[in-house]
Amino acid sequence: MTNLPDDARSALMLLSELVEPGDAELDDLLDETGPIEAVKRIWEGEVPERLQRITSAAVSCTPDPAYRAAQIRAATKACGARVLTPDDPDWPERLRDLLLVCDADEPHVRPPRCLWVRGPHDLAEVCERSVAIVGARAATEYGQYLADDLAAELADAGWTIVSGGAFGIDRAAHLGAMARGGTTVAVLASGVDSPYPKGNVSMFDLIAERGLLLSEWPPGSSAMKHRFLTRNRVIAALTAGTVVIEAALRSGARNTARHAAELGRVLMFTPGPVTSTMSTGVHRLAREPWEARLVTRAEEVIEDLTGIGGPLASEPPPQRRPIDSLTEIEARLVESLPRGYVVETARLAAVAGLPAEVAAETLERLQRMRWVDRIDDRWRLARAPQP
User: Coil, helix or strand for 241?
Assistant: First the structure.
């Protein structure tokens, strides 16, 4: 007789190690039998052929499922994590939206069956006002600066920043939020005890202290290529919208963008140089039938996330030039002086459409302000005009 886990949470933890998240066939079994009975049927081989095939190796290596579930519980406690299930009060309701868009032909898109969480916050609460910032790992300095600045301003406005913990745009977004004392959530493709990539370990330690590390895989799980794509649906579903900053045509960020669009979330992107391969995928979003919105500032992101009833983005501040500090008459004389030439007072007055005496008086004032130089009775623009 199979020794089964004694509670549903432990059974879900075990099943999350056994079968990749979002698997439709396992979810259907769970809906039919519940977690403990699902474990029993898998260990006894009383499941559909495909499910039996993908679990048989793990089952043969694990003769006692109850003992293995206890080991996963112990590893969870040892790394300071906790496990959430859809029945818990701090389970984010937005994740249930994945049921509305899951496609039988696409694997691993169902909602998570449980989540490992490391950090001091209530997951549902911090994700209530949250936005995803994602993009290229091989980001340019421009892209990293933009992600850092945007995340910092959004954090100042009380928004949680959600990203994937990778190098490049993800890292810049997480650090930008924490630099302003904001909350950030890193959705991982590995266990919360060993976040990937290892080069971001100091950042992950900070996130565990000030934000949240989140994973669908139990402690000890390694990052794998397919898991990055699987976790992207969680990044998109958790948040009110997604901002893509730099992405190649084939990239995980575009995969997240597609999930966001299918879920009806607000999809946004920031522009980059048309000559940059790191912006090719971002610009392509504007040509997809996803109604992606171009944003350049946090105010615009917030406007798009909150809708008509929310705060509207102010106009960008006008760019001021040194000449803007001059009076109209002063500016007319300065603009009438051809660069590199000297001009007599009377001729300059005629070009500017001013009386000669007014021009002469104004030019003397401009000389004191170091806008013009006097050479005998003629004038020229100063080499280094002052505002």
Answer: strand
